[in-house]
Amino acid sequence: MSKVVNCRHIGTGILAMVFGLCQFLCMPLLGALSDKVGRRPVMLYSMIGMAINFFSTALATSLAMLFIGRVVGGLSSASVSVANAYASDVSTPETRAKAFGMIGACFGMGFIFGPVIGGFLGSIDLHLPFYVAGGLCLANFIFGYFFVPESLTRDRRNHFSWAKANPFTALVGLARRVEIRGLVAVFALASLAQILLHTGCCTPTSLWLGTILKTVCRCSAEASRLPWCRPDCWGGY
User: Fold this and answer.
1) 71 FRET partner, CA 20 to 30 A, in 53, 79, 133, 147?
2) What is the DSSP string of 132-191?
3) How far apart are CA 183 and CA 100, in angstroms?
């Protein structure tokens, strides 16, 4: 029995690793593509890719199908940089921080309510959360296709460069920013802790797991409001 549980934990960890690896490899690529073709096509691609990821997970009958879904999801969900670029395009220098804050707030709402809703749906049927998530991705695609305009005009677009699309080049550039090394380290460790929680939780029910993740994300959101987390307490960084 213990060997079965250990194999299950290893498989869960590998699934999470594959997703994160695909995100790491494709985030600079999608960002560079959005500079050439525009933000809107890349974001629409991301929504369709995530829908395929969730539906393939819901319909999976083997571990291979799960891995395929996670690869597709990782390749298409690395659009955070594109979303930030869109916010930068449509905002002024005075309102840019507010626009980025709104994106962060939307992420926070998803992290707070998503786990408990998924846990509740999973207590009804384990496949149901993935169908609902896939449906939301399709609804998001439809809304984006008909109502979200392109933010990057043709005269502001750049030629595609493989150097910009290289994730290791981006890492080297980030390492050279001495003034934010501490912030990057803290963010990396916090992300690592959250992923360890997601892959390491073994609870009796999906609802209980969702409640735990909601509580953790809620605490994280509240912690960001503490006085020492404000930019003015760190010299404006």
Assistant:
1) 147
2) HHHHHHHHHHHHHHHHPPP-S-GGG-----HHHH-HHHHHHHHHT-GGGHHHHHHHHHHH
3) 17
